[in-house]
Amino acid sequence: MLPVLDPAKAGRVVGEAASASPSEAADAVAAAKEAFPAWAALPATERAAMMATAIQGIAEARDEDAAILSQENGKVRFEAWVDSLVFELRWNLALALAEEVDRHKVLEPAPGIPVTTDVSYQPLGVVTVIVPFNWPIAILGAALPHALLAGNTAIVKPPPSAPLATVRVVQRIAEQLPPGVLNVITGEDKNMTALIQNTDVAKVCFTGSVNGGRRIMEMAAKSLTRVTLELGGNDAAILLEDAVLDDTHLDRLYAAIYDTTGQICMNAKRVFVHRSRIDELVAGLSARLEKVVVGYGLEEGTTMGPLHSPVQKTFVDELIREAKESGAEVREFGSLPGGELADGNFVRPAIVIDPQPSLRVVTEEQFGPVIPVIPFDTEAEAVALANGTWGGLCGSVWTSSPDSARRIGAQLVCGYVWVNDHGATRLDLRAPFGGMKQSGMGREQGIEGIRAFQDTRSIATLDEAAIASASQ
Q: What would the DSSP string read from start to end of 145-210?
């Protein structure tokens, strides 16, 4: 069995999950392969109808799912509840595209091309969906319903450190679908090679770290398995001189930085602010951080839980220590809990003001509750600083000018840009989502997300009339 530990209470086991062997992982692939032909043969509208039935009642267990996820992940109960809600929203938004999935395109004869070509879409086959610990159920919703609606069968691999709530959700849905269409398997990563390198796996959809994405690509290359990678980010929020910094906007920015203890790929990781507004911005964030309550995710009044792993806690502690040693101004807030939580993965949230650009708190993804606030003087400087990084997942522009927002947003090298907002709570779940540079490849959500799980098929028919006309 696979023990699942509580990030807030050192040594406490929340529960246990099955620890699959390599042969059991291969069995999951075989089951999905067997179910594929019948599932793929259905019209997308019929698949959508079955999927709509399968999702019914998901909200009935949401409170219990959230309590389990909070304990295994560490996040506060409300965020765990929203995790499941977003999955349902994404599932239903995917189903709304059912009529478009099977829509063909016809290319009529043209000069020198005496054929009529029908371009249609076909599913790939067996798809593996690998989700991370931070928002596992919600992130699953960005890929799984699109893969199934496209006609593929799927295997879900939850994170080994937080599999329990995700397994519950997937099992309930899988029971309402034909056998083998939807599968879930848990275990140590070293035993899951068959989910990636098996030649019967057509595609792997992975959300995780940049290093994790590299490993997936290396493994998938051996069997030429396709990949969609949604990896980390070093997302920039740019606040221009005319940015509105009232309570509404400051609340949005605070959430964009510190939600889920900073452990969201699309969180703001660097804040660039016009030099004339830096004191005002720091004061606004500080006022909110002074109210933070660091503690157990299920306890009433807790606003920030622990980091998920001891390794991540050590990393974030190092970032803060390095910033202090460099001479940067570091402000820390709140207090660490004691008692049975004393050895949990807790970190005091922090702001690092005007750090050296070479510091790791600037150059690396913190994935924790610490943010560098960096002044700039010109728009061109802000854009250059924002783009001068390894990642390109998301970004944001904060300004009173729609023209400035469009102009700067169009220059940011990233896959998604917000205006006067930032973060997962404001993500348009209908729009394609994914990164540039080392933040990944491929897109999820929307019809683009469905097409990512399909191939085109072109059937060309000679047009005798066009041939005759060309010969005259």
A: HHHHHTT-EEEEE--TTS-HHHHHHHHHHHTTS-TTSEEE----GGG-THHHH-TTEEEEEEES-H
pLDDT-based confidence at residue 80 (cuts at 50, 70, 90):
very high
pLDDT mean over 73-81: 97
Q: Return the closest-CA partner of residue 391 out of 160, 168, 181, 233.
A: 233
DSSP helix, strand, coil percent of the chain (3-state; round to 5): 45, 20, 35
Neighbours of 458 (CB within 10 A): 11
Stretch 341-350: mean pLDDT: 98
For 368, the 3-state DSSP assignment is: coil
Name residues whose C-beta falls within 8 Å of residue 211's C-beta, 6 or more positions apart in sequence: none
In the predicted structure, residue 149 carries a pLDDT above the cut 80 = yes
Which among 212, 136, 259, 257 is positioned nearest to 439, based on CA atoms? 212
Average pLDDT over residues 59-82: 97
Residue 64 falls in the annotated catalytic set: no
pLDDT at 463: 84
Q: Active site includes 230?
A: yes
Pairing of strands 2-5, 13-17: antiparallel
Q: What is the rounded CA–CA span in Å between residue 286 and residue 292?
A: 10
- pLDDT given at position 472: 65
Cβ burial of 254 (10 Å; 0-12, 13-18, 19+) is buried
pLDDT for residue 467 is more than 90: no
Q: Is the model's pLDDT at 121 over the cut of 70?
A: yes
Name the maximum alpha-carbon separation found in the chain. Answer: 92
> Do residues 421 and 250 touch, judged by C-beta distance below 8 A?
no
Q: Is 89 exposed, middle or buried (0-12, 13-18, 19+ CB in 10 A)?
A: middle
Catalytic residue among 230, 365, 394, 444: 230
The backbone torsions φ and ψ at residue 90, rounded to the nearest 5 degrees and listed phi first, read -65, -40
Q: How confident is the model at residue 465 (pLDDT cuts 50, 70, 90)?
A: confident
Residue 184: count other Cβ atoms within 10 Å of its Cβ: 22
Active-site residue, selected from the candidate residues 88, 205, 265, 444: 265
Average pLDDT over the chain, rounded to whole? Answer: 97
